[in-house]
Amino acid sequence: MNWRIKSLDDSLALAAKRGLHRSLGAFQLMMLGVGAVIGTGIFVLTAEAAQKAGPGMMLSFVIAAFVCAVTALCYAELSSMVPVSGSAYTYSYSVLGEAVAWIVGWALILEYAVAASAVSVGWSNNVVPLVERSFGIDIPAALSHGLYSGTEGGLINLPAVCIAMLVTWLLLIGTRESARVNAVLVSIKIVALIIFVMLSVPVMQMENFEPFAPLGFGGISAAAASIFFAYVGFDAVSTAAEETKNPQRNLPLGIIGSLVICTIFYLLVAAGAIGSIGAQPIMDAAGAGLAPGSKEMGAACALAVNSGALACSGEPLAHVLREIGWEKVSRLIGLAAFLALPSVILMMLFGQTRIFFAMSRDRLLPDVLSRVHPKYNTPHVVTLITGAFVTVAAAFFPVGKLADISNSGTLFAFFTVAFGVMALRRTDPSRVRHFRTPFVFVVGPLALLGCAYLFFSLSLYTQLLFLAWTVFGLLIYAFYGYKRSPYAVPKE
């Protein structure tokens, strides 16, 4: 059977012939990784995690971090061996064949494009209250919440639309310029989180951690599957491989360094949020937790008795500081989210355009998608198309559902990478590896099991949506990509 496997040497040769300009160093990569990871997950999804797991979301953060850590080690080895655009898509093409690579590339659309939409909505959730409190105005729900957000009167999330369009324009003008802006935004984000930890941790009350798991371990697992979105981004560093100076050294540093920094911040912030005001979920009359983003949840949160609940807030960190008496500082946290969350959107859009670029260069998608702008040296066509998709999704859907959909694609891609690094150790053991995954046949299976565990902890609706998306993608491959592939006619 012809699996159409493109060798690693072919991938490197093609990148050298039709490649992108190398301009990113180790520090810029690490900042890109931190910029992509620290964002909506901690600024917004902390409230959703509280609704699913209560104080047990501390354990959810640990579970998600562990899965990301073992996967990051697999990513680091492959990205240092294959420093070209495409991330998991390119790795799969070189190890598991074209059909699997197509599925992975198609799944990565859910990871990056839908994630960019989710972060755009998260940005809006922080900005709208900030503007309302700072200027004493009331922004109607019809203009600040999407039609399917679960909010009464919601029609279109106009702030999310605006930020998605702005970041798309920024990406069009160049990778290096985007990275410089991102480094400034990351610094703002880190300072904001440090301030939050300094103010919230000292007023922690241990009784706020009880009961620790009000919805059982199932709730902790569900929260871990959602919180996983908070860590998505370290792999986006690998999509910049083709624009990285000395990628064999700088890629592993960027991937692993950014993940370590973010994990420490997450645990400190989660502890401060839970310990200072509590994080118990909102229950229905039968004692079951309400689904985040549902109309029932929106109605319950509208009641005065639930106005102080962490699970009800669209901007949980600012909410915590207001509850413990730091009203003015809470506005600064909102301002930091206003300034910094666009860096996450930037990296998600960046990652998606580079995936499309690689698939187009392999002729599995139309050649027009791999066109590079003559002045800005960026893939402008695919950037505009991706930006339009992100803008539409951000306009109408809530952050939690978008995040879960994104996670389904991410987990599938991570699963493939973990399998691929082990397969390549068997099929090409002599190839130079500038970074080697330690104990790969222990780390690799742990990554596989972790990704599968989180995937099946997602809602059934999300799993079925991923399945439908995959089937749709396979139809496109069968009727378009399969015939245009450079491997369509087997070599004699």
Describe this structure in words.
The chain has one domain (22-484): Amino acid/polyamine transporter I (Up-down Bundle), CATH 1.20.1740. The protein is built from 20 helices and no strands. It has helices at residues 8-17, 26-37, 40-43, 45-53, 57-81, 88-95, 98-135, 141-144, 158-172, 175-200, 216-231, 236-239, 247-277, 295-302, 316-323, 327-361, 380-396, 399-427, 440-455, 460-484. Helix 2 (26-37) crosses helix 16 (327-361), helix 5 packs parallel to helix 11 (216-231) and helix 5 packs antiparallel against helix 13 (247-277). The mean pLDDT is 81.
Measured between the Cα atoms of the first and last residue, the distance is: 14 Å
Chain-averaged pLDDT = 81
Order of helices and strands: HHHHHHHHHHHHHHHHHHHH
CATH architecture: Up-down Bundle
CATH superfamily placement: Amino acid/polyamine transporter I
CATH topology: Amino acid/polyamine transporter I
Uncertain parts:
none
Helix content: 55-70%
Domain unit count = 1
Radius of gyration: 22 Å
Number of strands: 0
Global outline: globular
